Amino acid sequence: MSLIHLDPGDSVAVARVGLRAGTTIEGLTVRDEIPVGHKVAVHDIATGQVVRKYAQTIGTAAMDIAAGEHVHTHNLAFQPVDQKYDFGNNLRPAPQTRQETFMGYDRGKGRIGTRNYIGIITSVNCSATAARLIADHFTPERLSDYPNVDGVAAFVHGTGCGMGGDGTGFEALQRVMWGYAQHPNLAGVLMVGLGCEMNQIDWLLEAYGLRHGPLFHTMNIQKVAGLRQTVEMGIAKVAAMLPVADRFTRSRCPVGALKVALQCGGSDGLSGITANPALGHACDLLVGQGATGVLAETPEIYGAEHLLTARAQDPETGQKLVDLIRWWEDYTARNHGSMDNNPSPGNKAGGLTTILEKSLGAAAKGGTTPLMGVYRYAEQVTASGFTFMDSPGYDPVSVTGQIAGGCQVVCFTTGRGSAFGSKPAPTIKIATNTEMAQRMSGDMDIDAGRILSAGLSVSAMGREIYHAILATASGQSTKSEAQGLGDYEFVPWQIGAVM
Question: Which of 16, 148, 309, 359 is the most exposed place for a label (fewest CB within 10 A)?
Answer without folding.
Answer: 148
